[in-house]
Recover the amino acids of this structure.
């Protein structure tokens, strides 16, 4: 498997395959061996397998929701299809409504499927951006030190001194009551945690002898930062980012529930819980139960994966 | 910051009939016609001097509203924290001393669910089941209407009922507290259990625990005096940090249980673009959060003699 990959890459470079393959192989053999070992460790832990399975399942639904629940008309596919001839909620199993329906025939199953896409894209966008910003700022701040470090860390402190849900709520309220402003608000604050995490790691990693060795052998600053410091500072952030994919969705759903995020009738799980709340109190349980379970499973998938990753990446746990 | 919403309305007697001249006068009086950085100066000046603006919802000064609603939130948060810490430490310790037992496995599942469950969903579930379906819990709110005439000088209803020597009221307040407190503490408890279990496991594998055991100390003493005290140190940090989650959770919990506190008010403020209200609430939670973590740092020195306050 790895051999074929290597040959493919070397061929593109138009270098004699055999010689280059061995050179390339030499350079990356340790990290490939490490990766294989990590995979092996992950496959041994039940929690990571369950987490990965759940994640794969959700990812497939999020990637191709139209296969599971085809949109009905030219409307926004994220809006639950409604039927004015069906004003009252129908229980699960009614024809056409696998998981029941809400007011005006809003199909809960459709909402769950498309909600997965909303949640997954939301989480990837917010956490992805935060990881990039956090890595770069943390790396520069930790490696350079001095005034840069001081300024970056004090700004980070401001963002971290306010509970995230409350800060997001305040920013989102100022930007307007829709899902995009919730996303912007989360993007504006989420990098701070990673910056602090990466900086802390960089501070300890840069004291290692192999960094001195790299410098002695004539590597430039940029190369040392990205080639030597970064890969060794990454793991804790990788774990945090995995778990935060769930946390970010929890915040999004909470804001929608409060009325700040997605509008009513939208296939967003938090909003669906809100829309079904009044019916739930009267005994029609499905409108609240299914979206809530969906959020629970989504967040749980990332928590399980994060736990598994931490066990694999933490060398203390290995031995 | 006066970015969004209409900043003039809260200052008008009856907004519908205000003349443009009146509006301009108010804009000028509150420096709203000046550039942003000048406005920022006046805002910061106001914050420092106790002028936090007027809340559009309550029509009262923000600081008065906060003073009036703070006890409700604080009472709920304190009860939840006490519950979360005591349950978390107890369960976490027990799970670590019986690793991989059914109790431990059960604990792991529950704490996984605890960190993954949406607070608002849990609140709605508890309210539906225990109030609407079973009728065991009292209706949402802080207290039954029959106690409205009882004087509440501190606004902490638990304390007030004791001051009034009113046993019925105390029971009523506790009954109202049960569901919101469980909702709010669930996530923190799960986090505390996890970290307590992990740090207990680490401590139990250490040399001094082996020494204590080989001295012939009873297992109870080893766990209580030697292991748990040391395992509490990382747990304390997490308690401080999870307090932030608790404050965020209070917004949702109070909204669901119609709890007349800061959280519910702030959610309404956010929905109605009551900028002064949102800013005031954000400011107060930041102060509380920072103070909570300061207290944690001080506790640190108490728990760990190796840490000295410098």
């Amino acid at each position: 498997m790895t051999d074929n990959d290597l040959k493919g890459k070397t061929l593109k470079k138009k270098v004699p395959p055999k010689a280059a393959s061995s050179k390339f192989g030499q350079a990356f053999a340790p990290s490939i061996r490490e990766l294989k070992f990590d995979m092996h460790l992950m496959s041994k832990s039940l929690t990571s397998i369950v987490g990965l399975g759940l994640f794969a399942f959700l990812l497939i639904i999020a990637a191709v929701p139209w296969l599971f629940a085809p949109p009905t008309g030219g409307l926004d596919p994220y809006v639950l299809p409604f039927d004015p001839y069906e004003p009252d909620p129908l229980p699960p199993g009614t024809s056409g409504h696998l998981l029941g329906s809400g007011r005006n025939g809003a199909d809960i199953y459709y909402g769950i499927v498309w909600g997965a896409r909303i949640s997954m894209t939301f989480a990837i966008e917010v956490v992805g951006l935060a990881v990039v910003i956090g890595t770069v700022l943390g790396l520069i701040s930790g490696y350079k030190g001095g005034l840069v470090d001081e300024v970056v860390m004090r700004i980070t402190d401001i963002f971290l001194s306010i509970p995230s849900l409350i800060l997001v709520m305040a920013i989102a309220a100022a930007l307007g009551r829709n899902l995009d402003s919730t996303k912007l608000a989360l993007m504006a604050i989420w990098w701070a945690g990673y910056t602090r995490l990466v900086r802390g790691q960089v501070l300890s990693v840069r004291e290692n002898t192999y960094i001195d060795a790299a410098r002695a052998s004539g590597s430039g600053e940029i190369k040392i930062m990205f080639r030597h410091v970064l890969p060794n500072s990454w793991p804790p952030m990788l774990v945090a980012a995995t778990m935060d994919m769930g946390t970010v969705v929890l915040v999004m759903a909470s804001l929608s529930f409060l009325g700040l995020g997605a509008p009513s009738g939208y296939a967003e799980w938090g909003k669906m819980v809100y829309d079904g709340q009044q019916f739930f109190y009267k005994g029609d349980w499905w409108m609240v139960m299914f979206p809530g379970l969906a959020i629970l499973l989504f967040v749980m998938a990332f928590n399980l994966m994060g736990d598994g990753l931490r066990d694999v990446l933490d060398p203390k746990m290995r031995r | 910051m006066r970015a969004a919403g209409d900043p003039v309305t809260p200052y008008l007697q009856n907004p519908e009939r205000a003349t443009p001249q009146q509006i301009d006068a108010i804009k000028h009086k509150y420096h709203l016609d000046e550039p942003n950085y000048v406005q920022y100066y006046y805002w910061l000046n106001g914050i420092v001097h106790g002028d936090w603006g007027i809340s559009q919802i309550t029509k009262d000064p923000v600081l008065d509203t906060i003073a009036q609603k703070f006890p409700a939130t604080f009472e709920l948060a304190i009860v939840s924290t006490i519950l979360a810490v005591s349950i978390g430490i107890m369960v976490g310790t027990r799970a670590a001393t019986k690793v991989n037992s059914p109790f431990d496995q059960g604990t792991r599942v529950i704490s996984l669910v605890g960190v993954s469950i949406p607070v608002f969903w849990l609140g709605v579930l508890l309210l539906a089941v225990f109030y609407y379906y079973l009728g065991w819990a009292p209706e949402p709110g802080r207290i039954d209407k029959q106690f409205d005439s009882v004087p509440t000088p501190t606004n902490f209803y638990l304390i007030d009922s004791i001051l009034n020597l009113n046993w019925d009221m105390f029971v009523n307040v506790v009954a109202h507290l049960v569901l919101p407190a469980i909702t709010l503490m669930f996530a923190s408890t799960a986090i505390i259990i996890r970290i307590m279990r992990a740090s207990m496991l680490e401590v139990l594998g250490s040399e001094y625990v082996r020494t204590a055991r080989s001295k012939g100390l009873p297992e109870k003493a080893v766990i209580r005096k030697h292991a748990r005290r040391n395992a509490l140190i990382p747990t304390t940090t997490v308690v401080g940090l999870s307090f932030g989650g608790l404050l965020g959770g209070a917004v949702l919990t109070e909204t669901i249980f119609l709890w007349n506190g800061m959280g519910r008010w702030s959610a309404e403020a956010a929905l109605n673009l009551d900028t002064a209200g949102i800013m005031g609430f954000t400011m107060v939670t930041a102060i509380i959060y920072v103070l909570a973590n300061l207290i944690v740092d001080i506790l640190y020195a108490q728990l760990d003699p190796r840490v000295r306050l410098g």
In short: The interface with chain B takes residues 161-167, 169-170, 172-177, 246, 250, 253-254, 257-260, 270, 273, 277, 280-283, 285, 288, 292, 295-296, 299-300, 303-304 of chain A (CB under 8 Å). The mean pLDDT of chain A is 84. The longest helix of chain A spans residues 108-144. Chain A has 14 helices and no strands.
